[in-house]
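User: Earlier you gave me the apo prediction for this protein. Now I'd like the version with zinc ion bound, so I can compare the two side by side. Same sequence as before, with the ligand SMILES added.
Assistant: Got it. Here's the input I'm using:
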Amino acid sequence: MKFPVLLPNIFNHPFTYESDLKLKTGDYVVVPFGKNKVSGVIWDDFEQDNKKKFKIKRILKKLEVPALKKDTIKFLNWFAQYNLIPKGLALKLTLLSNHAIEKVTDDKYKDFLTKIKDNLVELSLEQKQSLKMMNKNNDQFKVHVLQGTTGSGKTLVYFEALKNIINKGYQALILLPEIGLTTQFEQKFLEFFGFNPAVWHSGITKKKKEIIWSGVIKGEIKVVIGARSSLFLPFKNLKLIIVDEEHDQSYKQDEGIIYNARDMAVARASFENIPINLITAVPSIETFDNIKKKKYSVSKLRKRYQNASLPNYEIVNLKDTKLEKKSWLSKYIIEKTNIHLKKNDQVLFFLNRRGFSPHVLCDKCFKNYNCPNCSINLVYHKRKNILLCHYCGFKSSMDKKCTKEGNCNFIFNGPGVERILEEVKKHFPSKKIEIFSSDTMNKKDSSEKLKKIINNEIQILIGTQLISKGFHFPNLNCIIVVDIDLSLQGHDLRAAEKNLQLYHQLSGRAGRTGKPATVYFQTYEDNIKMISDITNDDPDIFLERELNIRKKNNLPPFERFISLIFTGVNDRALEKEATYFKNFIEGKIKAKILGPVSSPIFKIKGKFRVRLLIRGPKSLKLQNSISKLIQKYKFSKGIKLTVDVDPINFN
Ligand SMILES: [Zn+2]
Ligand SMILES: [Zn+2]
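And here is the structure of the complex with zinc ion:
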């Protein structure tokens, strides 16, 4: 008999093989492909319009693992179509490698043994009502949004919902945006449930991946906590998906296989006919739109857990209180910091800029130090004493021969967190101070550091946006935003939303255990409307207004955006190619094509980038017609096309 076998490679169609074995859709098999043996899956349909005359090869063997579910296959087919990704690459996300795993023995799963301990967590009335809504009609597809203010105990509500699912012997998946720092979350999980979840992200070992993969496919592992890629695990009995911090833009995978894990999670839930819960303090505009259209149900937690109050806000106008030269903190702020420290409050200085200074130049030859591979400034990192590119990782020493004479004499423009650290140290020499950024926290000792922060052994933190992500620091009662810069960059339609989310999440770190807390905004801005949006208890007012702006201008979610990004080493050829391609598809798709334009960051990693933007109706037909045209078009050598459906990043 003939079988269609999809392989985890760049092809968009299954290959035809023969076998006398009894095989069904979803079975894992090993087949010869070229000179290699690869694992694949019996797919649900043969290749369409296959006119090639190849000798049909035989399937080598069937793997002894449970078959991939038909619903999951349907989801992968749709996923490939929606994101313009070859089906083979969609399968690759589900398969662990080129070889599926057979050999894992059951005792390996005992670390994740599911025996729920009894716990006595008393939920508030609001929490109980939310839980009731989550549990209602949860034997079928539905999207529920749990919108709760920061520190309101959203996790407890969905843990209870999860308990319900696990007790029935089913599986559940919790997606988190920043998986590098899950220690605190795992701890919370263990305390509540009494067993360890399986944690899945790109950083875990291959061996661990194999154990989790096979535990998931056999239904032995009940709960997976994971980053984006965990969405593609071949669950046997998945009955609930949770997307925590659903508004977080790091759900968008920007490189390689480009997709939005939150949106794809909703799609998977729909194909598998199971419930999904989106958890957030402030919903994304897309989610808010779906709530308004009543596609998603919503429940709200307005009170903070154990009645802690939200922080107070104060704006410090830097036009009134002049800063001293090479200083970024006003006298007023230093006084306030002192008062908080005396009360034993932890203090956070927030500045979303890593390193010491974002802009370096020589005062003799006036050379600006830019990355040779990317069209952006190099950032000075004082701890390492290097210039670093935040895009490609290019490093260079500070030893620069000047074209005038001797070595360059550097001027550092503006501060990064390292520079703020120096200033804070001068004012508070006896305090323990730490930088909280991806440079200092994504390391092995980060859980040790987290412990110290929680125990208030570190009194002052200097943090980038990493610190805004879901942490619970019980003593943090004072946040100082060093320079709130709300300039709305013209090319980013989500700038206002991004700002609101960032500062809302950041403020939410303060005052979580009931002591009074204050967030100070130092700013040169006269327009404080944005700050009043951030500090408003009811984020729906902002969302409502923002949604109206999007509607008026026909921006997403009211229209579909698809970015086509051309990259190559020859900038002129690139412009030409983009124009040819535009002419080629113009009139053949039902959409507007804008561009070509150079990307705001024209060069990254040595490659130039030119973009087209397609604006069209929200229908899969648009993707299908673009996909067909791309296949027909002959691209010039050295030019690569990347497709980004529903783009978030316009760099
Ligand atoms: Zn670079
Ligand atoms: Zn110089």
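For your comparison, keep in mind: The chain is about 30% helix and 25% strand.
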